[in-house]
Amino acid sequence: MSKFTLYILIMYSSFTLYSYASELTEMSKDTDNAKLMRFYPHQSSYILPFSYNSSPNNEVRSQIDPELTTDSMEVKYQISGKLKVIEGGWDVWMAYTQTAWWQLYNTADSAPFRETNYSPEIYGSFYPSINILGFDLLSTDIGFVHQSNGQSGDMSRSWNRTYLNFKLARGNYLMELQPWYRLAEESEDDDNPDISKYLGYANYKLSYKGDGIMYSILLRNNLRVNDNKGAVELNVALPLYDTAKLYIQYFNGYGENLLDYNHVSNRLSIGILIFNWS
């Protein structure tokens, strides 16, 4: 089954299950009424102590030192938060997300951090009361995000994007559509000029919540008939303790991180979700 077909099937299923749109609407109002200069969750925050990649990328690290190895098993974690800095007809937010891949079990190479991605961003949000084909538009964001891995030389990766993000709810589902536009760089400063070929031009995300269990699917695709590339990420969160949940994540495709943007990863991870996605 193709990733596109899987996406269509899940979208179709959103019309068949019971509603928690009112809860999502209240979440939107909470965000709208968030206090200035107070820290709030942004993207998911989690720690995945057991993260197995069946196809690790050895090529880049071996260019630096041929004796370096990459274990299939590592630790993946993400921390993310945001701060409202201006409020009014539009709210303005500053946000930060950091995701790391830590070779904790690679004692031969002294357990290095293989890759860390840093993503500061700034965006404006407004909260319309609009219904689109049965979906309630909870919020619309317009923003700018810089993403880099803090490396130099052959391991350096970075890019800048402007984006729109539409958050819509219907029934048990929350749908997020995030198209983006990559900002051009000078050729001599561009570490990854072909990154759009692998990561495409948007994120498409669908989440479901019911009985304390959450599911989500994230899709990307370069929308090319020839040389089609993309990625799919599946997430399941099961009740564990208060805000913490047992978290299972599966990723397959390009662009799991910047160092591997042009390398296919096939990863299954298990750990703890600290803050929910929304």
Structural domains: how many = 1
| Unreliable residue runs | 1-30
The CATH C-level name is Mainly Beta
User: What is the number of helical segments per DSSP (H or I, 4+ residues)?
Assistant: 4
What is the fourth-level CATH superfamily?
Phospholipase A1
What structural class do helix, strand and pairing data support? mainly beta
CATH architecture field: Beta Barrel
Fill in the CATH topology. Outer membrane phospholipase (ompla), Chain C
How can the largest sheet be summarized?
12 strands, antiparallel, barrel
Write out key terms for the chains shown.
278 residues; Outer membrane phospholipase (ompla), Chain C; twelve-stranded antiparallel β-barrel; disordered N terminus
Overview of the structural elements:
This protein has 278 residues and is mostly beta strands. The protein has a single domain (3-275), classed as Outer membrane phospholipase (ompla), Chain C (Beta Barrel). The chain is 12% helix and 51% strand. It has four helices and 14 strands. The radius of gyration is 19 Å and the shape is globular. Mean pLDDT is 87; it is low at 1-30.
Secondary structure elements and pairings:
Elements: H1 3-13, H2 21-32, E1 39-41, E2 45-53, H3 59-64, E3 73-86, E4 91-102, E5 113-126, E6 130-132, E7 135-148, E8 158-170, E9 173-182, H4 195-199, E10 202-210, E11 213-221, E12 230-241, E13 244-253, E14 265-275
Antiparallel strand pairs: 1-3, 2-3, 2-14, 3-4, 4-5, 5-7, 6-7, 7-8, 8-9, 9-10, 10-11, 11-12, 12-13, 13-14
Could you provide a short overview of the structure?
12% of the residues lie in helices and 51% in strands.
